[in-house]
């Protein structure tokens, strides 16, 4: 059995302002109403594959759960990393989890933020590599290059036509001249960061090449404990792990590494210009996500998160408009978006971290407006879900139900609110919300007071976490 391990960490800062720390690019629903994370999960939802192991950030746990639920899939386990530690620790942790179920298990390590258009080609490559992995090889998958791209690492593959061939060298991201030479050579492929290996092979590789890291990760895995649908790790122990990629930790040291070249129309979508290349275009090469109009413009990309975006007389320009930020850039400068994010971080701007929509176990909230002493947000509460009983020390709240039926409790008094009905929650009042119906409740919440941050919550029950 092949155990897919889906790595859902990372931020994707070059896709700002849509990609944020609390809602990175793998969770953005840009392609046919599905996110890259969801597409990755569905890609391995076939016979021969076990239910996936998902390894992601603790901060994204509800996003992971929500998006799995939306596509009707369950995970073997959802392992939450307290902090990011690159790809080496997850590679070994996945092997340990798979080996507990099946000593002969194979692990397919997959980034969750890649787009693969020809999934049948990808699955055929995995099938062709299975024998090598069962024989003790660590298989890395290389993408046949279509251009001299300087944004990817390269792999030098032994000559021949076999579906799996020895790796001769791993090469860092090249300059344009070397990238051009690699393309002409024909013996180089892009490093996709996808690996297939037996669980025992990876465990043995860490024992041989990274013995101290193996001991540290084994100790971390002993700290595992369940929390709702998630598996948590001891934060102090995990923070001590080396921050290192599987390439540096194992692949460049091991002598049993082979490569399976493939051409599945792959893209890691690392920039807005890359997003533009895979989207449908009008006759002038313009692409739109959302409500956008183009006049005397060509080769442009427009993203309209809310409202209308219009471009007039522009060429090769990107306009990304979210509810709280707007990015305007030439496509040639798409890689420099990361520099803007770094500058905003240095200024302490929250727009790089906090997305207007925040997911919770019971639904989500979405920021509408805020001022000195007020905040307005919309809320969606799923059928059957309840918020914890709580109160606030510095703010009062006003609720207006837009659709559905809400059961509210304020200072022990319970009643129902239906469409267009409202309720006032005084400062200090104990209160909770419950959706007893069969459809989602949508409501508007207005907060007012001297302090409006989320840590102004006194919980009187733990019915629903982070509510």
TrEMBL record:
Protein name per Swiss-Prot or TrEMBL: mannose-1-phosphate guanylyltransferase
Enzyme's top EC category: transferase
Domain Nucleotidyl transferase: 5-282
Keywords, comma-separated and alphabetical: GTP-binding, Isomerase, Nucleotide-binding, Nucleotidyltransferase, Transferase
Species this protein is from: Roseibium marinum
Ranges where the MannoseP isomerase/GMP-like beta-helix domain occurs: 295-344
UniProt domain Mannose-6-phosphate isomerase type II C-terminal: residue ranges: 348-460
Any single GO BP term: GDP-mannose biosynthetic process
Record EC number: 2.7.7.13
Classification via InterPro entries: GMPP_N, Man1P_GuaTrfase/Man6P_Isoase, Man6P_isomerase-2_C, ManC/GMP-like_b-helix, Mannose-6P_isomerase_type2, NTP_transferase_dom, Nucleotide-diphossugar_trans, RmlC-like_jellyroll
KW Nucleotidyltransferase (keyword) present: yes
Family: Belongs to the mannose-6-phosphate isomerase type 2 family.
Catalytic activity annotation: alpha-D-mannose 1-phosphate + GTP + H(+) = GDP-alpha-D-mannose + diphosphate
GO molecular function terms attached to this record: GTP binding; isomerase activity; mannose-1-phosphate guanylyltransferase (GTP) activity
